[in-house]
Every structure is written in C-alpha cells, then in structure tokens.
DNA sequence: TTAGGGTTAG
C-alpha cells in the first residue's frame, strides 16, 4: 500500500490494509487495452454468467454481500463522487478490494470506478474492469455502463457497442445511460448521423431518452454546425413531444376514445397512464375524452380530479425531459461561437421567461460570448446581473474574465483578477495561467510570460502543449525565433507532445525570418512526431514557399494534395495565385483561378484583387476591368484594395479618365479612400493638371479634406 | 454507484 493510500485510510479511520504481494508497482501494469480479456476471461466461475433475463436477479455475485456499510465503503462514498481520490489511492484501494474475502459489494467498485471517471482516468477504469472479471468478480449493469462511458470517452465507440452487445447477451437491458454514452461517443467522433439514428433506435427499444440524452445529441449537433436541427430538437422537448417515433397523442387518444365508448374505462385509464409514462403529452382532447368516459360511467369524482390535473402544469409528467439550463446553455454557446450574439441573448431571455434559471455555467457562456464579440458593456452588465442574483463567479467565469481583459491588452487588471481569485480561495488552473501568459505575450511582455511559465509547476499545475505553444507563439510574433525553437526542443525533451498549432506557430515564425530550409525541415519533423498537418499548416507552407521564390516546391506540394482527399481552401489558391502573379507567371495563376470551381470553391474579393493586380502588372487593363465587372456581376463586392489595384494600373498607363471613373464608382459604393487611394490621386495630379478637376468629387468622400490641394 | 453544458494557443 502506498503512503498516500495509507494517509487516506488513516484520515477516514480505515483499518490498515494488508499488503498484497501481487500488487503491481506501476500504473502501467493496468494499461491493458484488449477488450477480449474482459469478456472471455470469465471461466473462473460459471456462476458469473447470469442465466435469467431479469437484470435485477440475473447476475449472482459468488460472494455474499456485506450487510452494513464498512468504513471502506463510507470512504469511497465520501471521496469518489467528488473526484477527491488520487489515481495512486484508487490503485491501492482497488488492489486491496479485489483480494478482500468476502469482497466488497460491486457498488463499492463502481464508486471507485466512478471516482476515476471523474478524474478522466479512463484507461485505468478499463483495466480495472478487466481485473475484476479476472478475479471472478461480476461487473453489474452499472459497471458495464461505466465501461461503455469510458470507451466512448477514449474515442473507442465501436468497443462501446461491443460492450453493449455483451451486456445484452448477459441478460442485461441497456439503459438510457448506456445509450447516452454511445450517443456521446458517436458525437465525439463526429458521427452525428449515426448518433441521431441511435437516438431513434433507443426509442424503438422502448428506452426513453432523458434530458441528458437530448442534451448530448443537441451538443453533438451544435458542434457539427447543425444548430438549426439542434434548435428544432430543443423546441420538440419544450413542446412536451420530446420523444420521437412512437405512438403519439393522436393514436393514444383514438384508442382511449374507443375503450371509453365500450365502457372499458379501466383499460382507458391504464392506457392514459402509459402514454404519460412514455412522455406522450395528453392533449386537451385526450383529457376531454377520458373525463367524458369517467362521467359516463358515474366516476365523476375521478373526472373532477383529472380536470384538476389538467390545470396543473404538465400534470407532473414529462417534466424531466423539458429543456433545462444545460440544453439552453449548449445552444447559447453555439450561437455565441458563431458570432450570433443577438440570437444567444434572445435564447437566454427565453429561458428566463420560461422560468428556467440560468446557472453559473450559462452566465459564463453568455458573458464569454459577449466579451468575445466585443460587447464589453453588455458582458459587464450580465456579470453584475449574475452576482446580483446570488450566483458567484466560479473558476471558469474568472478564466473567461481574465481572457476578456487580456484580449483587450489589459494585463494589469488580469493580474489583479488572478490575485482576487486566489484571495477567494480559488485555485487557478492551467487555463488561467495559459490565458494570462497569452495576454502577456500579446502586449510583448515576453519576460513576464516566461516567468509565469516557469512558475506554473510550483503553483500546482503542469505546463502542457498549450502552455508551450502560447509562449512559442509569443516568441515567434516578436521574431525571437531561437527562443521559440529552444522551447520546442525543451518540450520534446520533456515528453510534451507538440500539436499542429505549435508547428504552425513555429513555421510562421521561421518563414518570416526567411529560413526556408529550416521551415521545410520542421515540416518533415511533424511526421516523425506523428503530428498531422492541417489546412493552416499547408497555407503557411505554400505561402512561405511562394514568398521565398520556391514556387516549384509549392506546386509539387499542391499537386500531391490534389492527389489526396485534401479539402482546399480559397486562401490556399489565393496565396499560390498571388505568388505566380507577382513573379510574372500570369498563365499559371490564371489556370489556378479557373481550377477553383472544380474544387467547389468560389473566388472571393481577395482572389479577384490578386488576379486584377496580376493582369494590371502585365498591362492587360481591359481584362482587369472586365474582372471587376465580373465580380460585381457575381455579387462579390470589390473593396478599396480592389479599386486601388485597378486604379494604380490605369494610373501607370496614364488613363486618367478610367481612374476618375473608378473614383466615382467607389464613391457610389460608399467606400472611403485610404492612404493608397490618396497616393494614386496625387500621382495622377502630378502627371496631369487637367485632373485637378477630379478634386470636385473628393468632398463626396468622407474624411478626405486633407486631399484638397493648395 | 453510471450518461449532457462553459474557460487557453495559430
């Protein structure tokens, strides 16, 4: 037994645990990931396989259950649900428990496993389950549910299904919890259609989705951009018809009516109860039919109480499947992240109007959304509203506020907030430190960021890949590439796996310094570190290669991407086209421009501006002007850069009439000229006195008084 | 005793 477990045991006055010679010395011995052993290694006891289909009676534990709660059980009850148990304590207790005779009840094992789930030690839960069966102990339905949940959280949803299959074979009936875990697992793997199908299937399986299950699916839909579908589902819950694909109110009402007509009032009543159990909302017609039936059969008092029930909200059923603060929070969060802050606020008001009180999570979601969408005053007001409602900010709220201040470059107040949370007895977490470090980097205070980075481990947290990436990004932004590379090497040395974001930051920095070979070397290193490049990586790489005269290399990569299933972005085309235009290879750029549509991409204002620039450089002004008309015709509005580009072209060609014409067009579009426009006009004036007359149109632009020539 | 929501880096 480890000293930590001993301490924990003494704390809760547990009897000393006997030393188990077989106890593994390291956590690695628990890390078996084979599913098969869990199900096949049951030969030690035939009684381990339940024979009855009744889950309440089927699994017979070969050992008698302790009649009263032991100190061990009390300890587990007190510490597991809160997650107040360390991994090493859990390992020790588990090893002790499986050797106890008689063994503790399965609920104690489940509590212990639950504690590990709380601290996200999924693989350990998995190996504990394997050891349980290997010891001849029988996991019960809840143990299996915990296992399904762990597998799903480990992105092993397929194995989750295998466990469900085994569950059924053992005579257990999968529960809403089982299905919810699997729905979540599918959502985590972005298999939202399958999650939706499973949701429908569980209803067919007569397993009612709970509000948690709805919440899980709604979250999956929101995460995959299907907010509309999520909203519809949410509304479906709210209307009381929160369960799909089953007999509905109309079918039930018809049957009740039929039974009432035949004076089979008892059967009608039980059908009515059944529909409520199935969360099928009886309508006023259903009630009316049944009330009529009771009245007809002389049961007026029952009819009256039914009438009373109608008056009560929901009649007391279906309530647990109504939207709650969690389901609202999920959708509000999606709207915030999609920049639809008005929609988010609207939904927040709706939930309050429906009597659903927002909790600290919903407040934090919306406060974050408001700050993130630069609605500072509204964010502040909401924070005050939350506190006035008696809800205190929690750790995440503080992190949101620190992040908001950092984004505004207000590091001083962020630091004060950190001090405040510590004064309040709150332990800042790695999010807090990473956020603050990023804020410090943003304002160029790299030394303080580094200092904070080094102090993280003394503050009870460990810097992870994000901490390193934040600092690496800070160094790269301020062109301190060597420091960034040193940090990168340090993270590898310390076993912290760099992410694609780490590499993207480094590649950007290295290309900025013009070190093309180093960047290429790093790009290849990504493979050795098993980090897959994403579309941002390819954009950085292709842009860097193009800007540093390595277009053939860029095109090689482009072609290899074409041969894979890579999803091209407009930005990738833009960077290549820009590169070729600027090096006078207009035809290649033109080919790329035409290739875009075959990749399902539409040119944007930047694409057109690049091509217009390329054409102007080649003196193909008419064609450039044609492209301007084309983009306007296709609803892609030119911006000031597009006009400047084309005007510069005409200016160089001494075509002042065209320039003036374009200035008029700009004015019509309410586009303000920028410094570049001004310099074009000045150039033009210096060339041709007659152009002075164009000054007449200048007052139509805002903020152009400075342009008036003496 | 088991299942859902919020905060950090390009």
UniProtKB/TrEMBL annotation:
SUPFAM superfamilies: HCP-like. Residues 38-60 have a biased composition (Polar residues). PPR repeats lie at residues 140-174, 175-209, 210-244, 248-282, 283-313, 324-358, 359-393, 394-428, 429-463, 464-498, 499-533, 534-568, 569-603, 604-638, 639-673. This is Putative tetratricopeptide-like helical domain-containing protein. It comes from Rosa chinensis (China rose). Pfam families: PPR_1, PPR_2. The lineage of its organism: Eukaryota, Viridiplantae, Streptophyta, Embryophyta, Tracheophyta. NCBIfam families: PPR. The keyword Repeat applies.
């Amino acid at each position: 037994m480890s000293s930590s477990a001993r301490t924990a045991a003494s704390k809760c006055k547990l009897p000393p645990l006997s030393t188990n010679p077989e106890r593994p010395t390291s956590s690695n011995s628990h890390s078996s990931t084979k599913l098969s052993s869990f199900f096949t290694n049951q030969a030690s006891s035939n009684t381990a396989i339940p024979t009855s289909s009744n889950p309440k009676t089927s699994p017979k534990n070969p050992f008698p259950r302790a009649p009263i709660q032991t100190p061990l059980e009390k300890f587990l009850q007190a510490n597991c649900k809160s997650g107040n148990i360390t991994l090493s304590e859990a390992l020790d207790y588990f090893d002790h428990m499986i050797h106890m005779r008689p063994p503790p009840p399965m609920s104690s094992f489940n509590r212990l496993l639950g504690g590990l789930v709380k601290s996200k030690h999924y693989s350990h839960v998995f190996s504990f389950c394997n050891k349980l069966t290997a010891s001849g102990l029988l996991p019960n339905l809840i143990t299996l549910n915990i296992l399904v949940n762990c597998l799903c959280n480990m992105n092993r949803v397929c194995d989750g299904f295998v466990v469900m299959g085994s569950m059924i074979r053992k005579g257990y009936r999968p529960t809403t919890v089982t299905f919810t875990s699997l729905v979540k697992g599918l959502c985590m793997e972005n298999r939202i259609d399958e999650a939706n199908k499973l949701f429908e299937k569980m209803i067919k399986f007569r397993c009612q989705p709970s509000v948690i299950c709805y919440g899980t699916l709604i979250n999956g839909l929101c995460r995959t951009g299907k907010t509309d579908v999520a909203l519809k589902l949410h509304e479906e819950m709210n209307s009381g018809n929160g369960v799909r694909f089953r007999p509905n109110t109309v079918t039930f009402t018809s049957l009740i009516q039929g039974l009432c007509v035949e004076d089979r009032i008892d059967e009608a009543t039980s059908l009515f109860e059944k529909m409520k159990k199935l969360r099928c909302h009886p309508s006023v017609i259903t009630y009316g039919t049944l009330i009529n039936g009771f009245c007809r059969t002389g049961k007026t008092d029952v009819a009256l109480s039914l009438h009373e029930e109608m008056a009560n909200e929901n009649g007391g059923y279906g309530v647990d499947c109504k939207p709650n603060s969690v389901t609202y929070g999920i959708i509000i969060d999606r709207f915030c992240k999609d920049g639809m802050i008005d929609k988010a606020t609207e939904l927040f008001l709706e939930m309050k109007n429906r009597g659903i009180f927002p909790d600290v999570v919903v407040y934090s979601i919306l406060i974050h959304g408001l700050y993130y969408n630069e609605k500072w005053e509204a964010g502040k007001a909401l924070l005050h509203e939350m506190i006035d409602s008696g809800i205190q900010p929690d750790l995440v709220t503080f992190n949101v506020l620190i992040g908001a201040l950092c984004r505004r470059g207000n590091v001083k107040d962020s630091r004060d907030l950190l001090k405040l949370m510590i004064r309040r007895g709150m332990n800042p977490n790695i999010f807090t430190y990473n956020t603050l470090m990023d804020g410090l980097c943003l304002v160029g205070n790299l030394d303080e960021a580094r200092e904070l980075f080094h102090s993280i481990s003394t503050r009870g947290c460990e810097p992870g890949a994000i901490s390193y990436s934040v600092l690496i990004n800070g160094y790269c932004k301020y062109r301190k590439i060597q420091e960034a590379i040193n940090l990168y090497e340090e993270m590898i040395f310390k076993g912290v796996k760099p992410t694609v974001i780490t590499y993207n930051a480094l590649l950007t920095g290295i290309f900025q310094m013009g070190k093309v070979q180093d960047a290429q070397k790093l790009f290849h290193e990504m493979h050795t570190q098993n980090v897959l490049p994403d579309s941002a990586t390819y954009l950085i790489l292709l842009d860097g290669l193009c800007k540093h005269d390595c277009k053939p290399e860029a095109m090689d990569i482009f072609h290899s991407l074409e041969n894979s299933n890579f999803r091209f972005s407009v930005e990738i085309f833009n960077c290549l086209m820009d590169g070729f235009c600027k090096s006078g290879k207009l035809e290649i750029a033109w080919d790329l421009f035409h290739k875009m549509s075959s990749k399902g991409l539409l040119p944007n204002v930047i694409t057109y501006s690049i091509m217009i620039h390329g054409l102007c450089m080649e003196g193909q002004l008419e064609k450039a002007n044609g492209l301007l008309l084309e983009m306007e015709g296709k609803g892609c509005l030119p911006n000031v850069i597009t006009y400047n580009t084309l005007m510069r072209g005409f200016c160089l060609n001494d075509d002042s009439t065209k320039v003036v014409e374009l200035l008029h067009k700009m004015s019509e579009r309410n586009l303000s000229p920028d410094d570049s426009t001004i310099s074009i006009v000045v150039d033009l004036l210096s060339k041709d006195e007659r152009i002075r007359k164009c000054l007449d149109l200048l007052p139509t632009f805002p903020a152009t008084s400075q342009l008036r020539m003496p």
